Amino acid sequence: MRHVRRMVVGFIVGQLLSQRNGEATELDDVTTYYLLHRNDFGSEAAPAGACILYALSCNLSDADLASRHDLLARGGRSSAATSDEESSEGAPTSGSAVRLKGWNQRGGTRLGQPMPDGAPPPLIDCVHRVMQLWKTGEQARVNNYLSDRGLWKHELFASVVQAIIELAERGSEERALLESVQNHLRDGSAATSSQGSRAAPAQRSLF
Length: 207
Hints:
Strands 1-3-2 form a three-stranded antiparallel beta sheet. The protein has two domains: 1-101, no CATH class; 103-207, no CATH class. The radius of gyration is 17 Å and the shape is globular. The protein has eight helices and three strands; from the N terminus they run ααβααββαααα. Helices cover 50% and strands 4% of the residues. The longest helix is centred in the C-terminal third of the chain and has 23 residues, at 173-195.
């Protein structure tokens, strides 16, 4: 039954990624959960029960998503209180609801780094790490991270970026950052193809 649920989830997420049937099975469980949750509930508070079922369908637990992966926050807040810049502290919460943490609410130096068991980081962690680095304006750190993780020409990573752009609110800082990252990836991929190497693209303004 778990395998069947995972196949159904993979098909749904595959539609979000606009990929051929079956390719979504390559996507890690955490990123699969993120896209499924984001598509259905956005950044708003979501019923905890539904999220538990979604997590199980992705071979995860809501506890792991909240603690180990730092992806979920307990409680929720109204749409009027949500923004890229606001902290969740002091916002009205409900114990029966959970919400996705924003890209700028996920902390720790290990974000986007290999897991303790040596497994590669979830792609959503890589996306949020790149966004945080991009926000600092330090392009060398962005380029180094993309090179270290082999993301310059990583088609699935690029597809995840595109999927989140389409799910992000128009005019939001999140969408603007992602579109900048997407353009940077395209420039870098073109540069590496023409040079026949993994060299980073020439310096450009981040803003």
